[in-house]
């Protein structure tokens, strides 16, 4: 009698699509081997930020739910950025024990079908991902990643997905000469993506940066040192209106956007919607006076710069800027970040619920170790 094929337990965390604070764990038993052309990876650790809530909030509109389908219409598999190790491989060029950084579901394990395998990594060619944004299908082999350092894994998970948005947004604005603006007004200025953008622009001549934030987060934003001015939301109407102004919206707050347009009037030259965790609706046309809000999507600018500079130069510039940013953020003397490490899927469920409710200190960075 043949020996039965070894199996292992898989745990997956599913989020309710229309109530992101609700989630459940699902367990299954699967073969421990990899099928031909397949690799099996075990997720080791991942970061949780409001960016992950953004992925879920825009899950339908931006196809984020489609990366890791559940087959259950009401339940989605929230994507996260993290590190995973290969536990089985039936693919030449990828060996068990190798570690990869990339975009994963919140699960103990995932199967992928690698293609375009190079020293740098691979792309997942699983059929349902073929029509999705390719930047999210790329997995980086850590031993050949110029930006990787083992002691920086938590910072990389927390900041790299956000900082690529920040870096390319700063580049997009510079590439367009700030649409004629001399001042940037940045909402949700305490968010990591917002101050990452400000960090990239902080020494750019001819532009001043004003951070819009809540009274609760004012001291944190002032302490960042990235903004020339810090303004609370209820102080918005006190800002001068005689300077060509560009609004960078990380809040998604429609009433705030309306106030910005009404207050700055003809001095508002561009409205850049950079995404939001708190507004779970897509960008709507509110028929506001002034420039129409334009949605910013980092992969579009990445594609442009890959064509302009070549992918190697894009990576070189990004890696250098990211390392400067992480070194600054992790310096305790700057007070930018306090790492909060949590263990297991139950902790992830609780953290997601708090993030979905808008609860979280701006200086905290949440990392989940799967165990």
Q: Which helices and strands, and how do they pair?
A:
Layout: E1 7-16, E2 19-31, E3 39-48, H1 50-57, E4 75-76, E5 79-89, E6 99-105, E7 109-112, E8 114-115, E9 121-124, E10 138-141, H2 153-175, E11 183-186, H3 192-201, E12 208-213, H4 218-224, E13 229-232, E14 245-249, H5 254-264, E15 268-273, E16 294-295, H6 298-309, H7 311-330, E17 338-343, H8 344-356, E18 364-369
Parallel strand pairs: 11-12, 11-14, 12-13, 14-15, 15-16, 17-18
Antiparallel strand pairs: 1-2, 1-4, 3-5, 3-7, 3-18, 5-6, 6-10, 8-9, 9-10
Protein traits:
alpha/beta; Quinone Oxidoreductase, Chain A, domain 1; Rossmann fold; 2 domains; 18 strands; 29% strand
Task: Name the CATH superfamily assignment of the largest domain.
Answer: Medium-chain alcohol dehydrogenases, catalytic domain
CATH class of the largest domain: Alpha Beta
Order of helices and strands: EEEHEEEEEEEHEHEHEEHEEHHEHE
Number of strands: 18
């Amino acid at each position: 009698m043949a020996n039965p094929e070894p199996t292992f337990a898989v745990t997956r965390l599913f989020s309710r699509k229309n109530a992101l604070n609700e989630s459940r764990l699902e367990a299954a038993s699967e073969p421990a081997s990899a099928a031909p052309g397949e690799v099996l990876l075990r997720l080791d650790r991942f970061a949780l930020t409001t960016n992950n809530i953004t992925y879920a909030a825009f899950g339908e509109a931006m196809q984020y739910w489609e990366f890791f389908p559940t087959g259950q219409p009401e339940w989605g598999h929230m994507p996260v950025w993290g590190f995973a190790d290969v536990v089985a491989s039936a693919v030449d060029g990828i060996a068990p024990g190798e570690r990869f950084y990339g975009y994963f579901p919140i699960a103990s394990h995932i199967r992928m079908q690698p293609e375009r395998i190079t020293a740098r990594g691979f792309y997942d060619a699983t059929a349902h991902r073929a029509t999705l944004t390719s930047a999210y299908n790329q997995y980086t082999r850590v031993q050949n990643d110029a930006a990787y350092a083992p002691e920086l894994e938590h910072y990389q998970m927390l900041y790299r997905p956000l900082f690529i948005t920040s870096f390319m947004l700063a580049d997009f604005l510079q590439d367009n000469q700030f649409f004629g603006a001399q001042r940037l007004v940045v909402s949700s200025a305490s968010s990591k993506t917002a101050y990452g953008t400000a960090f990239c622009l902080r020494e750019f001549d001819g532009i001043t940066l004003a951070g819009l934030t809540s009274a609760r987060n004012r001291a944190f934003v002032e302490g960042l040192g990235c903004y020339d001015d810090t303004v609370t939301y209820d102080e918005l109407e006190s800002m001068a209106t005689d300077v060509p102004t560009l609004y960078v919206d990380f809040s998604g707050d429609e009433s705030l956007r309306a106030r910005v347009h009404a207050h700055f009037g003809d001095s508002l030259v561009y409205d850049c919607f950079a995404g939001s965790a708190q507004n779970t609706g897509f960008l709507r046309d509110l028929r506001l006076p002034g420039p129409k809000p334009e949605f910013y999507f980092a992969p579009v600018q990445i594609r442009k710069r890959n064509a302009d500079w070549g992918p190697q130069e894009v990576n070189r510039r990004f890696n250098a800027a990211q390392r400067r940013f992480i070194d600054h953020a992790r310096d305790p003397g700057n007070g930018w970040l306090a790492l909060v490490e949590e263990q297991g899927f139950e902790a992830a469920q609780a953290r997601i619920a708090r993030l979905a409710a808008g609860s979280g200190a701006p200086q905290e960075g949440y990392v989940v170790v799967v165990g």
